[in-house]
Automatic annotation (TrEMBL):
Transmembrane segments: none annotated. It comes from Pseudomonas citrulli. Pfam families: ThuA. Gene3D superfamilies: 3.40.50.880. This is ThuA domain-containing protein. Residues 3-216 form the ThuA-like domain. InterPro entries: Class_I_gatase-like, ThuA-like. It comes from the Bacteria.
């Protein structure tokens, strides 16, 4: 059975405890053996016995980080084959930890239409043949549209295009929404959707996330 560490909590504005209920449904459908933790110090130990680490942690300020010990244990685990999955706030977590964002493959910069604003935008898929995206259709989201800074070496699965409201100079510009990468022997998957549970109700998002979890977990 796939052994998972699910770390969640932090800033309540991203509803980590409500979204944990949504995540539990996916874990159950995947028949994962999940250890939950709301204690960041869980990362201060050897993590190599897990098959997957899921980050549902959310930060309130940009100065929050991981300690050198936490970075070391997390990176060693992934380099040795443990998968890493995160969504939405995981791209803004541990903002001062360059190592974490180096592994994840990107970092949140801004939501141009405003924090928490239900801005309508499309998610368009670039790679429909990947194991993570098979059967997933383009879909609309009404939520925070994330502007991401990303590693040029990630494999982008889906992107969004900005409509220029309220920043007209961004009209037509695109930003990745979902990507995968390899890190050592480990696999990494991230998508930027999930400000609250209503954003995650679309069956396409459920399928994308579920397939991403399955793909990233150590085989």
């Amino acid at each position: 059975m796939t052994r998972v560490l699910y770390l969640y909590g932090g800033w309540p504005g991203h509803y980590p405890y409500e979204i944990a209920g949504w995540a539990r449904e996916l874990f159950k459908e995947l028949d994962f053996d999940v250890e939950e933790s709301t204690d960041i110090f869980t990362l201060d130990r050897d993590l190599k016995s897990y098959d997957l680490i899921v980050i549902g942690w959310n930060n309130a300020v940009t100065t929050e980080t991981l300690t050198a010990s936490q970075e070391k244990h997390l990176s060693e685990a992934i380099e040795n084959g443990v998968g890493l999955v995160g969504w939405h706030g995981a791209g803004a977590a541990f903002r001062a930890s360059l190592k974490y964002h180096f592994i994840l493959g990107g970092s949140f910069l801004e939501h141009p239409a405003g924090e928490g604003y239900p801005h309508p935008y499309m998610v368009n898929f670039l790679d429909r043949e990947h194991e993570v995206t098979q059967g997933v259709e383009d879909f609309e989201v009404r939520s925070e549209q994330y502007y991401m800074q990303v590693d040029p070496n990630i494999h982008v699965l889906a992107e969004t295009t900005f409509d220029g409201n309220p920043m007209p100079w961004l009209k037509g510009h695109r930003s990745p929404v979902a990507w995968v990468r390899n890190w050592g022997e480990g696999r990494v998957f991230y998508h930027s959707i999930g400000h609250d549970t209503s954003n995650l109700a679309d069956p396409n998002i459920r399928r994308l996330t579920k397939q991403g979890l399955r793909w990233a977990a150590r085989k």
